[in-house]
Design brief:
With 100 residues, the chain is an alpha+beta fold. It is built from five helices and four strands, in the order H-E-H-E-H-E-H-E-H.
Length: 100
């Protein structure tokens, strides 16, 4: 898994307006089937990680916890623990890059 490539792509998705940030907005997009892929910071609280992981598994949305809060925040330029990707093309590319 090439972390730098994934984080650069995350920044591109942010500039393209294809993601939503924050726990509540991401949960809303998961429920409405807009979210295609979700990033959760590995150092987020246990409650946040469990809540997002449970929602993702219930609604069949791929989710990763492979990145720290600082890495995700630096990539998008905002301090966030949870990021939802709303574009199928970006989501597919993230899945490919994470699987290696």
């Amino acid at each position: 898994m090439d972390k730098e490539k994934i984080l650069n792509l995350l920044g591109l998705a942010m500039r393209a307006g294809k993601l939503v940030t924050g726990e509540e907005l991401t949960i809303g997009d998961i429920r409405s089937n807009k979210a295609k892929f979700v990033f959760v910071a590995s150092d987020a609280s246990d409650n946040t990680r469990k809540k997002i992981k449970d929602k993702c598994s219930y609604y069949n949305v791929p989710c990763t916890q492979s990145f720290l809060h600082s890495e995700l925040s630096h990539a998008i330029g905002r301090t966030r623990m949870v990021i939802g990707i709303n574009d199928q093309g970006f989501a597919t590319k993230f899945k490919e890059l994470i699987k290696g």
